[in-house]
Design brief:
Length: 988
């Protein structure tokens, strides 16, 4: 018993002595930086500046970031640290980073990574080895990653993309993108590195996936062993510490040996990384590789390409799911570029995606896969601007994550903002503040390949799916504390839109019919108006027209949300649809809802039979005789306009406001029999409600498009497109006016009176009368004011045309008041009006709905019943084939000779055929006086009177406030967005 106690005392004495010696040695070691007058952060015993491996709370990457942040707070440009007792030199200032990685690279050639070639030959790879051995191997391997070699691997990536998309379709709505993308990159690297089909996307228990994941699965014991081996590499090799476990090493060694044996035995070659290593393995007078070295290089290429790329894609999708506006902007770019490449993902197309580069750059900034890199000083180095010497063998730490999250370089660093990497911001920033792949000669050799597979994977997913964050996913993410790679702890679940497959099937409609199309964007289809940088709604169909025209097509298919729409380009097809075969296209396809919005059921929107019955009865309203009766009312309104302008001579006038008030007065008088007098009372209820009709914001515009593409659902949901206060106002005005006239036996020569007379024979309800009055108000008011505004804007810019028009007006009037007949004789005025309507058609898109299946002439393409057909009036009117130099304002395009020589159905400001605008300009069929008189319909008459009255009495000119016309992005009319300022001077 005594002997045993004596042994325990001696053992305890030895342990205590060893602890005392160890602590003394560590404390002495912790004086290293202070003895060299290099600033340092205070260490603790025994771990130095490391966290305790037994209670780690941060990943090693974030721990080093925290150390960097502390050094920055202390104002240090560099400082010393300790990993256990081993001194480590931390770079803080960007100039110091530049010196170590680039300028003084010859002092820091080695990474200083632990490897054990004897016990663990697979660890002696390009990333770890140093000196001339690294230099020679790097030189030999660099040609693998030229653009030419990457191009040869691109088809392999596309094959893997197909497998990924197939797997996505089988997944549930909620997916762990981290796991799925890990399998995707495993397949790519397995094919490009080993020439093998790993099949991990379809089989998650594939050996490649199992062993690939195992490499990055670390226990605390393994983390402690690797940290000790990295701090004391000689001791680590002496103890036989392995970086890679034997089962992983055996698996990859067998794969490589079997592949080499098969290729050499069968004289088989393949354009991949493995083949390059096999070629290097063969006898060469300059350099040869052993089989172990081939295995090691294949292994590191596999690991680097699989984990870093999948991690980057995972974090990128996570941020895009959180920032849907960025996701939509990126998707918009993807579809725009794919459109130029026939909808295919190509090497060149991916290279064109600038915003995709910005998104990935920002993801790599916020989540660099390798959060820090190391260098080892290979010969004594005089630290610049100090008298300190960094000794040979000292490890140097480059804190990538710390620099990337530094507020000095990246304000609000936790915010995901791809615009940090636009060209302007990149030029303004120090290039060494962004180093996700390192910098200098030892930058990541596979960087370009990794980025390529990352981009291809993101493009393939975003073109088909929308991602949102799943509640299972932590926010903010918690990073794994057991990995040297920056990776999330647990999965990252995102939600893919449940209707994705439905959308995909919808977007195959035109392709299945063999009709050319423009690649749609989920979920808007081709209606990118609602995306950032979207088109003005009114000009959207012009974009379609121009794209199909440039491709030499006569028609093409597009999608508005999910609904297929046909766009006509060739005038002969346009003629067929709106005129010759009108019986198959008798409806406009404009939404109406009798239950919830009675004003929407009008002559413009009605289905065929209701429209036909009402149109026949209303046509008599716009005979020359009826219009003659209204002529004096319009002239009286123009006199009010002249009196108002006389009070504003020499001032900068918003001519759009002037034209709007004139049009309100005319329509109020001729349609409702109401004296609006908007020049004296611009805030009166009638002018105010008239403007409210055309107040479109993004929500109201979306409702209009949704209701047109899903009319039944919209009626079920009670969707209305007219504002509720507008509906109440017009119904009240009509009811009060009708009641007053009928009660007092009053009749007037206006449109409302015609509807009242029809009511007696057709049983029209008050709501039906209000709806027809409403549509004539909207059609006559806004289109007239827009046309007058555009005409005066162009005449102000072209004073010689204005003078020519004024001379004609004065000549035809002969010093007298303007008459109906003199207005009809103003030929140049008609040309000015027609050229204005060419360049600025108020309704830029004409729609028709197919009412029965119809085969396009000369093709086997069947337009199915219910399909919406678009005719881009604006596209046709600005087509240089029909109107050379289309942006030029030139009324001579519409002299008699030019009109005769121009192809029919290329001038359609008010449509054509049976459903052309009832109240506006009818085409002159011949030149007899009687026909000319009949041709001056109501809308043309009030527009001509408005233009002629102003030009006769005033000289309009541009002023410093005159700006180019911009169009309202949410209006379906070609409506000016900005004020149109002109100056008016009295003509003597």
């Amino acid at each position: 018993m005594y002997a045993f106690l004596s042994f325990l005392v001696k053992l305890l004495s030895v342990v205590v002595s060893l602890v005392v010696v160890g602590v003394t040695y560590i404390k002495w070691s912790h004086q290293y930086w202070s003895r060299r007058n290099i600033p340092f952060l205070p260490p603790s015993v025994p771990f130095g500046n490391l966290q305790s491996p037994l209670k780690k709370t941060y990943s090693i990457g974030f721990h080093i970031k925290n150390i960097y942040d502390e050094a920055r707070r202390r104002g240090l440009k560099h400082c010393g640290l300790y990993f256990f007792a081993s001194p480590v030199y931390l770079l803080v200032d960007l100039e110091y980073l530049k010196n170590v990685m680039v300028r003084d690279f010859q002092h820091f050639v080695d990474r200083g990574m632990y490897y054990n070639e004897k016990s663990d030959p697979i660890s002696a790879h390009l990333f770890a080895i140093g000196g001339n051995r690294w230099k020679n191997l790097r030189t030999k391997l660099t040609p693998t990653f030229t653009s030419g070699k990457l191009k040869t691997m691109f088809p392999t990536l596309i094959e893997c993309v197909g497998l990924l998309l197939n797997a996505m379709e089988k997944e549930s709505v909620q997916i762990d993108v981290k796991e799925l993308l890990g399998r995707f990159t495993t397949d790519i690297i397995g094919s490009c590195a080993f020439g093998l089909d790993c099949n991990t996307i379809q089989d998650e228990d594939s050996p490649f996936r199992i062993y690939g994941k195992k490499v990055f699965t670390s226990t605390r014991l393994r983390m402690l062993k690797m940290t000790l081996a990295s701090s004391f590499p000689t001791l680590g090799r002496l103890l036989g510490i392995r970086q890679v476990s034997s089962d992983i090493s055996d698996f990859f060694t067998k794969i490589v040996k079997d592949t080499i044996e098969y290729r050499e035995k069968n004289n088989f070659t393949r354009p991949d990384f493995m083949q390059l290593l096999i070629d290097l393995k063969k006898e060469n007078e300059n350099y040869t590789l052993s089989i172990d070295e081939v295995v090691a290089q294949s292994f590191i290429f596999f690991l680097a390409g699989f984990e870093t790329s999948s991690t980057t894609m995972t974090f990128t999708l996570y941020e895009l799911a959180k920032n849907e506006e960025i996701q939509e902007k990126l998707r918009d770019e993807i579809f725009t570029v794919l459109d130029k490449h026939n909808g295919e993902i190509t090497y060149e197309g991916v290279a064109e995606m600038k915003y995709l580069n910005q998104v990935i750059d920002e993801s790599l900034r916020k989540y660099p896969p390798i959060p820090f890199i190391t260098r080892t000083c290979v010969k004594d180095y005089n630290i610049p601007d100090t008298d300190a010497v960094l000794e040979k063998g000292r490890r140097v730490l480059v804190p990538i994550l710390g620099v990337h999250h530094d507020e000095e370089y990246y304000p609000d660093p936790h915010r995901f903002d791809p615009d940090r990497f636009n060209e302007e911001n990149k030029r303004a920033r120090n290039q060494y503040s962004y180093i996700p792949f390192g910098e200098g000669p030892r930058t990541c050799i596979g960087m370009r390949f990794g980025l390529m597979q990352t981009k291809v994977g993101l493009v393939a997913l975003l073109r088909k799916y929308r991602f949102t964050v799943n509640p299972k996913t932590r926010d903010p993410l918690k990073m794994s504390s057991r990995s040297f790679i920056l990776t999330a702890d647990g999965g990252i679940c995102v939600v893919i839109a449940g209707l994705t497959n439905y959308f995909h099937n919808c977007y195959q409609y035109w392709t299945n019919k063999g009709v050319a199309t423009i690649t749609p964007r989920f979920p808007w289809g081709n209606a990118n108006t609602f995306l950032p940088q979207g088109l003005v709604i009114g000009t959207l169909s012009k974009k379609f027209y121009d794209e199909f025209k440039q491709k030499g097509l006569k028609f093409g298919g597009v999608y508005i949300l999910t609904r297929p729409n046909l766009v006509l380009v060739d005038p002969e097809y346009i003629k067929d649809v709106i005129n010759k075969d009108f019986n198959s296209f008798g409806e406009r396809g404009v939404y109406h809802n009798a239950k919830d919005d009675s004003l929407s059921v009008n002559l413009f929107t009605m289905d065929y039979q209701e429209w036909r019955n009402l149109r026949i009865k209303l046509t008599s309203t716009f005979t020359s005789g009826k219009i003659k009766i209204m002529f004096q009312s319009v002239v009286r309104c123009s006199d009010y306009m002249v009196q108002a302008l006389k009070t504003s001579l020499g001032e900068d006038l918003d001519i759009k406001e002037v034209a709007s008030r004139f049009s309100i007065d005319v329509i109020g008088s001729c349609i409702f029999g109401i004296e609006c007098n908007s020049f004296q009372s611009p805030d009166a209820e009638f002018p105010r409600m008239g403007k409210r009709i055309f107040d479109f914001d993004s929500w109201r515009s979306f409702k209009v498009i949704f209701s047109m593409t899903h009319p039944r659902l919209s009626r079920y949901l009670g969707v209305t497109v007219n504002n509720h206060d507008v509906q109440l106002f017009f119904r009240r005005i009509v009811k009060d006016t009708v009641t007053a006239r009928e009660g007092n036996g009053v009749t007037r020569a206006d449109f409302l009176q015609i509807l009242m007379n029809m009511r007696k024979s057709t049983n029209l309800t008050l709501d039906e009368i209000a709806a027809q009055a409403f549509v004539f108000f909207t059609g006559g008011f806004e289109s007239t004011s827009l046309t007058i505004t555009s005409a005066l804007y162009e005449l102000a810019k072209n004073p010689e045309m204005q003078d020519k028009l004024r001379a004609e007006i004065l000549d035809k009037c002969g010093g007298e008041e303007m008459t109906y007949e003199s207005l009809s004789e103003m030929k140049y005025l008609a040309q000015v009006l027609e050229e204005t309507l060419r360049k600025y058609p108020p309704v830029p898109t004409l729609t028709r709905r197919c009412t029965k299946d119809y085969t396009l002439r000369g093709t086997d393409v069947v337009v199915e019943k219910g399909t919406q057909v678009y005719v881009s009036i604006l596209g046709m009117h600005r087509d240089p084939e029909y109107y050379p130099d289309p942006e030029k304002f030139d009324p001579e395009r519409f002299n008699d000779d030019n009109k005769k020589s121009r192809l029919s159905f290329t001038y359609l400001p008010f449509g054509d055929g049976p459903r052309n605008c009832i109240g506006l300009l009818e085409k002159f069929r011949n030149h007899s006086t009687e026909q000319k008189l009949a041709g001056v319909r109501f809308g043309a008459m009030q527009t001509k009177i408005g233009i002629a009255t102003i030009v006769k009495n005033f000289r309009v000119s541009v002023c410093p406030k005159t700006k180019p016309i911009e169009f309202n992005p949410y209006s379906f009319l070609l409506k000016t967005f900005n004020k149109v300022y002109l100056k008016a001077e009295r003509v003597s």
